[in-house]
Task: structure prediction
Amino acid sequence: MRHSFLALAAAAVACSVVAAATPVATHADNGPTEVVVGAVLPLTGEESTVGTYYKAAYELATKEINDHGGVELRTYGRKIPVKLIIYDDKTDAATSRNLYERLAVQDHVDAMLGGYSTDLVQAQTVVPNQHQIPYVGGGGAASAIYKRGFKTIFSLLASIENLAYTECDFIEEMQAAKKLPKPLRMAVVFENTPHGQDFARGLAQRAKAKPQSFQIVMNEAFDLHGKDFTPLLQKVKATNANAFMADAHLDDYITMQRQYTQAGMHHAYITYGARGPDKKGRDALGKSADYIVAASWWNQAIPNAAVKAFDDKWAKAYPKLNTEWYSALPYETARTLYIALTETGSVDKAKLVETLRHIDIRDTVLPGGHIKFPADGQIEAPFVVTENLPDGKTVIVYPHAEKTGEAVLPVPGS
Result:
């Protein structure tokens, strides 16, 4: 079941259904007339920026398939077009779960694409598990989502614990080069979700294993979508840490880093987990975003032919949307589902789940280029580490196979 994304076609934007959909019609002797795929995304509310990207990416991948006649399902001896249904959960977990229930019970979807944000994905994945519907996501990275024994859930987003380990590997490389002190005294702050808890746990495990390299001097959670992080930042300031290690969603990253700068704070190393190179953040923060290090699931600078092809395709389809990891990951998520449907050759849900368990896809846009799911369904793909440099430049600084520039560390300043 090894496939190459480069062997599949290209294209632009697609049509999604945001209103109620009718159950799929079928030909009794020749299978369905449509393959019905559903997703629920935060198109309004706090996570709407990223949710809008996910919608665009799902539509792009779907149009790509439909422009070539649909999914090739050999059981029925023909290609069958995909009908994509997308609902807005308004960044509310209960609404997200209810809308996935609607997809299962009223819309009779053949498969589901995942939503975005840990709390939403954790709530919604109960539904495909209950109804035994294949679900492929790329928007919930907390390991707790995949440790519940659910058998129909698959994710292209590697865990936040592994993100933390990757940053630590990079830091050790910088310590060996005398660019960072040893041990690095880390003030750790994290969103109070399984996502943030994974980040803090990863750093704690590395500090325990390598106390000569890492020392945690503060470890504190904060609530999502905050407006004033000043009290938290004052605690950080009092620790005499030389590294500020934060895990935050995009809106909290922007708010916190703005207040960090206003407070005149400075550390030799600054990270917000996966946040940093995002265009919205750089536009909002200006020079305040310079020298922030991030570990991400994808970056458009990865020196890879598949990445370049995707970047060109995205720019053509969506000239007003910058290419971000949250455009590439959902695009690849939808492509993975469509490849699995092709390999299965039918819309039989149990067979599709079995295909996903053994899928092996090469030449993808992910770092390492490989999609394969372990037993719990959460991919173990590598991360790339980036650093923001002045004048809007971002370089990949780790690992060496993906590297596009040199890290500037410690962070310049007094």
Summary: The domain at 160-296+384-402 is CATH 3.40.50.2300 (Rossmann fold). The longest strand covers residues 214-222.
